Amino acid sequence: MKKSVLILCTLMMISCAKKQGNPFFEDYDTPYGAVPFDKIGIEHYMPAFVEGMNRQKLEIDAIAGNPEAPTFENTIAAMDYSGELLNKVSSVFFGLISSHTSDEMQAIAQELSPLLSEHSDNIRLNAPLFKRIESLYNNRDSLNLNTEQQRLLEKYYKNFVRSGAALDESRQERLREINKEEALLTLQYSDNVLKETNDYRLVIDREEDLSGLPQTVVEAAAEAAAGAGLEGKWVFTLHNPSRLPFLQYADNRELREKILKAYCMRGDNNNEADNKEIVRKLVNLRVEKAQLLGYNTFAEYVLEETMAKNPKNVYDFLDGIWPRALRQAKKEVTELQKLIDREGGKFKLQAWDWWYYAEKLRKEKYQLDEEELKPYFELQNVRQGLFTVCNKLFGINLTPVNNVPVYHPDVEVFEVTDADGSHLGLFYSDYFPRESKRGGAWMSNFREQYVKNEQNVRPHIYNVGNFTKPSGNTPSLLSLDEVETMFHEFGHTLHGMLSQCSYPSLNGTNVTRDFVELPSQIMENWCTHPEVLKMYARHYKTGEPMPEELIEKIQRAATFNQGFITTELMSAAYLDMYWHDLSEQKDYDVNQFETDCLSRIGLIPEIVVRYRSTYFNHIFNNNYHAGYYSYLWAEVLDADAFQAFVENGLFDQKTATAFRQNILERGGTDDPMTLYRKFRGADPDPKALLERRGI
Question: Fewer CB in 10 Å around end: N or C, the chain?
């Protein structure tokens, strides 16, 4: 008996013994059918995963062995509804792996990874099952399917082909091995980034080294030190709410250099958490996988199923913007260097100087100090402003609920209802950094929307962030970037929450990677609009609205530093493409490859690529491989789409309804460009992006 089969059989026996009392095996007896986090223990995950895989295997075997002729319902729909228990436990486990992990959970993930990979391959490489799908696909024109059903059939057929269903047995076996190894490597990569991020502390014991830092930042650092048993000192970490203000305000240039270099060297310290070998293995595995499946590069394989379609179109898109962005960045370098010289600095601008002098230049040019904004961006007020915007646009309401279990005290839960009072779903927010949470911000769900047996199952969606925490008597006061991030992630929430799709695989955010960021990025347009700022930006102490002159300063400074912001993002998009457009397996020197890539595009030394290869979680763990360009592409869509609101009114109901019905409710039920044209009436105009960024 194969080792993997023996392990699975053993785990199945454990599973049978542990079903009793396992919350995953029961209907959740909670309000709204919410996840009973208060009843789920570490011991419940593995038995539920094993039973979930076993149940789905039986379901798939029944579909593949069905003696009746294949139909859409008995094959495609049946597959899409299969795996209910597996999806149930996966959504919770993998949600918490990112937001509230532990050593025990990471150990389970390592054990699970090859089992889940094998389970997935057993489905996608099931020959009788593929034969039924292929038969339906070849006769699709005679099946009288609606658009959504056609999309689902096409999706399954292409997924099976792209997963190796048409390969011979020996190639399928090698593909299985690649998939298992890739799954384990991406998991280890992410664990290493989290460890490197959590392990670093910049400890300051001299008060003079705090010069320039706002009082709220100093207080937060003192609290971090106290929490680490370092009373009387100050601790800064690599988490954004700690690192970025330090780079932005700390007068001590040496310490700015120290913390930026620590951030940039994550996964590249030649220790047990080093990621260079993992990157090398991953890119070679992906080259091999692509070529096994008939593609020259992994980028060709990935992009075939996106709006971009192929690497050339991505390069053409990036190349059309890069020279302008780089030219703007070089102008910004000149401005910052002049400021350094005026202040008597005897040094050339370096990467660790950029945030510091950019902040000084912002004050000089626009009389805008970001610290001046924070008192008006108290987290609760910002979130209420966001909710109000969504109410005015789409009629939805969010009401706090206190009877739903949560996985951490920081988590808050809201019921979402439509304009007519009908239930739309649950929204969970989890906004503050902790060691059990990876960096960044994201949206996902504990339950997706779909229709089954004429019942519209409503979603339970969460947003996770790493925003500035409350400190002492001071509440959470957000930076402008954090405000935009909150609006951004809730845009993803709207995409999932307002979904009205029949099938799980097509709902909400189950769209192409370069379309999924449209609903999120368009929401950023509202957060700093003068009309919206007047609705929610109030001083946390006095309740006074943000002064008109401060709002005007925000508008005037909207294109400030865009050369830096754009080149930082685009250099990461190029790096992603260069890694995944390789056609040869080699023993790549990761650092040299990265250096050569950035040299090739002419990235200036004063700017560090947004993500270096050793901590680029998007592409080596989070399925954005050959897809990081999509943030910029989606900005073309959102800049053009927002123009419809500019033309018709910020809260114009006809425009908002068109966006809801054609974009937010439709998920992946139609071609994304078709959906966009139905909303906008034309293709997106890239000029809107360039004008907004001022480049």
Answer: N
